Amino acid sequence: MLDIKYIRDNQNEVEQALLKRIDKKNLDLNKILKLDDQRREIIVKVDELKAERNKFSKTKPDAKTIKAMKKLGEDIKVLDRDLNSAEATLNEVLAALPNIPADDVVAGGKENNKIIKTFGEQTKFDFEPKNHVDLATDLGLIDYERAAKMSGAGFWTYVGDGALLEWALLNYFIDFHRSHPEYRFMIPPYMLNENSAYISGHLPKFKDDLFWAEKDKLCFNATSEMMLGNYHAGEMINRKDLPLKYYAFSTCFRREAGAYRTEERGMIRGHQFNKIEMFQFTLPEESWAAFDELLDYGEKLVEGLGLHYNTVQLAAGDCSAAMAKTIDLEVWIPSMKGYKEVSSVSNALDYQARRGNIRFKDVDNKNKFLHTLNASGLATSRVFPAILEQNQQADGSVLIPKVLQKYMGKKVLKK
RNA sequence: GGAGAGGUGGCAGAGUGGUUGAAUGCGGCACCCUGCUAAGGUGUUAUUCCGUUUAUUCGGGAUCGAGGGUUCGAAUCCCUCCCUCUCCGCCA
Length: 415
Known about the structure:
Blueprint: H1 4-9, H2 11-18, H3 29-57, H4 63-96, E1 114-119, H5 132-138, E2 142-143, H6 144-151, E3 157-158, H7 161-178, E4 183-186, E5 191-193, H8 194-199, E6 212-213, E7 218-220, H9 225-231, E8 236-237, E9 244-253, E10 272-282, H10 287-304, E11 309-313, E12 325-333, E13 338-347, H11 351-356, E14 359-361, E15 367-369, E16 371-379, H12 380-390, E17 398-399, H13 402-408, E18 412-413
Parallel strand pairs: 4-9, 8-14
Antiparallel strand pairs: 1-11, 2-3, 5-7, 6-7, 9-10, 10-16, 11-12, 12-13, 13-16, 14-15, 17-18
Helix pairs in contact: 3-4, 5-12, 7-13
This protein binds one RNA strand through helix 3 and helix 4.
C-alpha cells in the first residue's frame, strides 16, 4: 500500500515511477486523488457536526436541545455512511497500486531482466542426459504415480533416498542459517485467515491460486512469507530491537491453476513443496544493506551445492506488486535448457508494513513504518531436480553434493 | 461442540449512561534535591484522522477486542463476530 499523502504531494514522480512497471491505461492517479478529495470533504463536514453535538453532550441538555440534537444525529449517521464508503473505495484503488520501483530497477517486463552474475557453467554431457523425472523415477527417489492416485496431479511422494535427499537439503539450509545466530528459526502455522492473506498482499489477487479450507475460512500458505510478514502485524517495534531477522520452514501449497506446461512436469511446479524463507524487519535506512545480505546468503546456499545458476535483476514489470526491487537466483535445468528460480530476494520497503501496520518509534519520537524484506533460502523443489540433472553420470547414477553427503551417509545415488 | 468468566493506555488495574482520553500504581522521560545514591521530590508520559501552520503551533474528530444497534449523549445497555481463561463433551 502506498501512502496517499505521498501520492498527493508527489503525483508526477509517483506516476513516472509506476509507469516503469504498469501500463498507462491502468494508472489513473487523478481518479485516486479525486476520491481522496471527496473523502476529506466529508470528513470536514462530519467533524463539524460532531463537534457541535459534543458541545451539548457533556452535560444534560434541555428538551429543546435534545430535539435539535436528534436531527443532528441523523445527519451525522448519513455522513458517516458516506465517509465509510468513500474510504472503502479509496482503499480499494490504492491497494491495487503496486509499489514504487527502486531507482536502479529498469522499466519494462521480463524481456528487460538482466543477468548480473553467473556461477559455474552449463553442464556438458558426453552421453544422452535424462530429465529429472526419469532420473527420480529410475532411481526410486520420487513416486509420482501413487501420489497422483492419492492426491491428484501435481503432487509427488519422496521415497527412500529421495526423502533423505529432501531432508538433507533442508538440514543443509538450516545449518547454514544457524551459523547466523541473529536469525531466529520459525515454524509457523501453515494455514492462515483471510485478513492475514490480505495483509501479506496475496488477497484478493491470488485468491484462486491458494488452497482453501472453505468451512473454516482458512487458506494454506503459499509461502511462509505470508506468515512471517504477518508475524508482527499491528505491532509497535522498539527501535533498538531492529532489525528482526527470521528464517522459517514451511511446506507451501499452491493451486498453480492453469500454470502447467509440459516442460514443467515433474517437480518444477507442484501443488506442495518445502521451503526455507528468510525474512527481515528493518529500519528504513538499513533495508538496502539487508537486501545485500539476503542476496549474499541465497547465493552462498546455491554455490555450496555446486550448482550452476544466474543472478538476475528483474525489470520493474516482472517484480511482484509489493516489491520495490527483486533479484532472482535461477538454477540451470539441463533438460529444460533453461533457468528456474530457486530464490527471490525482495525489498518491499514500507509497502507491506503500511498494509500490516507494523511500526517503530523513531529517534524523533514519531511512529514510522519499518521496512520488510524476504528471500528464499531456499526452495527445495527446484534445487532437487537441478542436482539430479546437473550431477547425473553416464551410468544413470547421481553424485550427491559434498555438503549433503554427511546428512545422507553416502556420496552417490544409484539403483 | 456445550456451559461460565473475561478482553480498558507500555504493563498492572479502577470505572455500569453525561466535562472520562479515561482514577491509582508500576514503568518511561525531563528537571530538581540530597554526602548513607539500586534513595527522595516535582512535572510529564497513547494512537490516528481532518483543518491550520509548516522549525514549531493551534482547533476539531475518532479510538476502552472488531463490527453493528439503542440513546440527545455509550468504555458503560443490546446484537453479531474474534480472542483468552475455567469446567464438561469429543478426540482418527
